[in-house]
């Protein structure tokens, strides 16, 4: 199993803290009535986004989901512009028009979070096809949940990507519930990776809450794609520590004790902290300093968002087309 260096581990620690801080702040803001729209938190799943995206270059692509903040930050999204988007301000990535579920930034290869289940899967394949036709070594990664693997577009896209040997990695974030429906109630299979052999591509299941294991599995999958070996399906066994959305207590379909046990045993940040302190000689003071630095950056991001202007009514019809439309 490939192992990251100490510096890479510290980088991944920083990214997971960035995500956790952002999500906790967003949840607080939403509950206090300061954010419009819907909010789906990524708390507990940080290891999957970070363990995969650490292998991606700036020009590589990702597609995301309604629970996309973690993916965007892991790929290089700025927290100030993301927060401005959540506040529906003009300095946001989509000028305040996309909100939490539809942030996109072509400059960093973020082809969009998406409120439609499974909709990012074919977009990633399209980006991968573009890269192959242009002869680049770009890779596309699509993040999606277990529920999306029941969608027809999942099967159609994996089949086409396999036939055309596209440089794409399909990452299923199996947090065990499709909204409030346990996986066992919507699928006969337990391991989603077993669907990969149907398309003659590798299927790998990994502990999605262990960033080092995700790192190793993603290293192989991304390298395979970049070198022309075709797609891989990664099934990351993870768990969200919050409800499906911010207004969902999550108690109707899972026991509170289950959630508490997951938080105690499988918090991805705590697990990496133990490796850094016990095996890599990093002090708790060093990690605390990183957290404090990032918390200060987040405060600046919040001020940036709150002080940014709101869109004007006449902005509603702007950005509807890629280019100018002549009368």
Automatic annotation (TrEMBL):
Keywords: Oxidoreductase, Pyruvate, Thiamine pyrophosphate, Transit peptide. This is Pyruvate dehydrogenase E1 component subunit alpha. Its EC number is 1.2.4.1. The pyruvate dehydrogenase complex catalyzes the overall conversion of pyruvate to acetyl-CoA and CO(2). Gene3D superfamilies: 3.40.50.970. Residues 245-266, 306-327 are annotated as: Disordered. It catalyses: N(6)-[(R)-lipoyl]-L-lysyl-[protein] + pyruvate + H(+) = N(6)-[(R)-S(8)-acetyldihydrolipoyl]-L-lysyl-[protein] + CO2.
